[in-house]
Amino acid sequence: MLRHPHDPIGFEHQQQQLQEQQQQQQRVSDSSDNDLDGVVDEKRKVAAAAAAAAADPALGRQDGLGLDPLDKSSLSNRFKTFRGAFKYLHDLTPQQVDDFMASYKIYNLDWADEQQMVAALGPDYRQKVGECLKAYYGVMNHLCALGDVEKMYIPPFMDKRATVLENQLLYEREIARAIGLAKGDRVLDLGCGRGRVAAHMATATGARVTGINIDPNQIAQAREFNADRGLSNEFVVQDFNSLPLPFADESFDAFYQIQALSLCKDLPSLFKELYRVVRPGAKISLLDWVSLPAYDASNPEHAELMSRVKPLIGAVGTPTPQLLEKALEDAGFVVVRSENASQGGLQAPLIERVDVYFRAMRQIILGLVKVRVLPQHFKTLINRLCLDGEAFVKMDTMRLITTSYWVVAAKPE
């Protein structure tokens, strides 16, 4: 768990714990007088627990996974979120559905092949990619909110006992530790989505987050969600392929991003911008999709799997760990960590959980569409969402790709 001298967590929870322990003492005292030795022993245990809680305010606040109430307080109300997402999807116009489905064409392309990009999208392909991303994420964020991936990322596999949501919280705690977030720090979140990760970072550490995202729909949700929690985080509509970023030099004490870099056309230029806007000594965290050394583009099976997985996860580029490291170092950063953040290097257990959930939901939705309780476009959306989950699991298990590759770097003092 993150700790710093300004940690706002603790006092109220400690008081509550002590009150519960006092009540427990009273219950013991009121028990049978014939078991005096047991009562005395119980009181000693309670007193020892109370003393330990007083010595360490964090004791008793963490669950078995190391998460505390502040971590979980950053989560949304699942029923409210599901209902809101469902209503939004229900009310989509035919044009929005068509634009969403058409947006998938960009995931059959790759930034590395500019000739292919121009042939498919025209000379203004960067603008076309941006338009497709807005159409895609404007719907996809609501589809994801029907399940446990409202934050729109499958996290590293941190703990086999934890749910998908808990694995997200555990990883986000690791980000905050790695980049040294503390109360009052200003941190930039690139590709901030619906602002849920930003809310967790701010709640857990006292830092102030500025999030940027290309999709106005998600930015509006991020602002509302954070404002409802009394957080002063800021959210800006910004395409990070349009540089420079709208921030002054050395504006931020830290930076993080989660699975957004495949959407970046020019990583070296973006990293130079990040170097400019963070202060000397700042650390940055990148979690992203990469192809691994075992992947062979000339292998027909590998290539076929890649063509199925890229649209599923919404990846345009296909970076490698080496490409990320080189671009960071060329920008001036020093790489301090470069590794797969998942236990054993595999995300497959979490990918399978998400896939099973949405496949079960798909059966329910298809049934409701069949009896005309839901509009026909729900069938189109859920069929597209559930396509090729098995391919994702297979590529991860074969260690051809991962979406949990973690790089931490620092700007020299």
What keyword list fits this structure?
413 residues; alpha/beta; Rossmann fold; 2 domains; seven-stranded mixed β-sheet; 13% strand; globular; disordered N terminus
Give the biggest beta sheet.
7 strands, mixed
CATH top level label of the largest domain: Alpha Beta
β-sheet strand percentage: 5-15%
Q: How many E-type strands?
A: 7
| CATH A-level architecture of the largest domain | 3-Layer(aba) Sandwich
- Give the radius of gyration: 24 Å
CATH topology-level fold name of the largest domain: Rossmann fold
What count of domains describes the coordinates?
2
Strand arrangement across the biggest beta sheet: 3-2-1-4-5-7-6
Q: Can you count the helices?
A: 16
User: What is the string of helix and strand elements?
Assistant: HHHHHHHHEHEHEEHEHHEHHHE
CATH superfamily of the largest domain: Vaccinia Virus protein VP39
Please, could you describe this protein's structure?
It is built from 16 helices and seven strands. It starts with 10 loop residues before the first helix and ends with a strand. By secondary structure, it is of the alpha/beta class. α8 (164-178) crosses α9 (196-205), α11 (267-277) packs across α13 and α14 (348-370) runs antiparallel to α16 (389-397). The protein folds into two domains: 11-55; 80-410, Vaccinia Virus protein VP39 (Rossmann fold). The protein has helices at 11-29, 36-55, 69-73, 78-90, 94-103, 114-121, 125-144, 164-178, 196-205, 216-228, 267-277, 300-313, 321-331, 348-370, 377-385, 389-397, and strands at residues 186-190, 208-213, 234-237, 252-258, 278-291, 334-340, 401-410. Strands 3-2-1-4-5-7-6 form a seven-stranded mixed sheet. One of its GO terms (cellular component) is endoplasmic reticulum. Residues 188-284 form the Methyltransferase type domain.
